[in-house]
Amino acid sequence: MKSVYTEKAPKPVGPYSQAVICGSWLFLSGQVGIDPKTGLLKDSFEEQVKQIFENVEGILKTAGADKNSIAKVVVYLKDLSLFATFNALYQEFLKDVEVKPARTTVGVSELPLGAMVEIDIIAAVKQERG
Fold first, then answer.
1. Of 115, 95, 83, nearest to 13 (Cα)?
2. Which residues lie below 8 Å from residue 51, measured CB to CB, with a gap of 6+?
3. 37-61 tens-digit pLDDT
4. How far apart are CA 54 and CA 60, in angstroms?
5. Which of 80, 87, 90, 101 is 20 to 30 A off residue 116, Cα-Cα?
6. Cα(90)–Cα(49) distance, integer angstroms
7. Are 117 and 50 within 8 A, CB to CB?
8. What is the pLDDT of residues 69-119, one digit of tens each?
9. How deeply is 37 buried, as exposed, middle or buried, from its count of CB atoms within 10 A (0-12, 13-18, 19+)?
10. Are residues 31 and 112 in contact, defined by beta-carbon separation less than 8 angstroms?
């Protein structure tokens, strides 16, 4: 296994990696809408979602993957009434992706740091030859 780290995503707030490559799979830790430049959680739901997507893209790129590599997405929403809003932002994020990832959405009562949404992702990566 190999740990993935980039300055384009927030530093982990606990004892975990931003992502881990295991074989041909990339496992991203749950991302909340923290701006890696400030270390602060974005204020609005929409801002948090967009920041998560920016963070995810930074991690994917660092690991040698991109949005087309995403196989599975798990979304944790603190307020399920924001499901339609999330879907619109998600659709925009994946607009150029031909094969949309499998996805699960779960309503939760709380998330770390008071976040309104958290997303974790599994993506495919090319195996290094060695």
1. 115
2. 33, 34, 35, 42
3. 999 999 999 999 999 999 999 999 9
4. 10
5. 101
6. 8
7. no
8. 999 999 999 999 999 999 999 999 999 999 999 999 999 999 999 999 999
9. exposed
10. no
How far is Cα 91 from Cα 87, in angstroms, rounded to an integer? 6
Q: Distance (Å, rounded) from C-alpha 56 to C-alpha 124?
A: 14
Give the separation between CA 69 and CA 84, rounded to whole angstroms.
24
User: DSSP per residue over 15-81, as a string?
Assistant: SS-SEEEETTEEEEEEE-SEETTTTEE-SSHHHHHHHHHHHHHHHHHHTT--GGGEEEEEEEES-GG
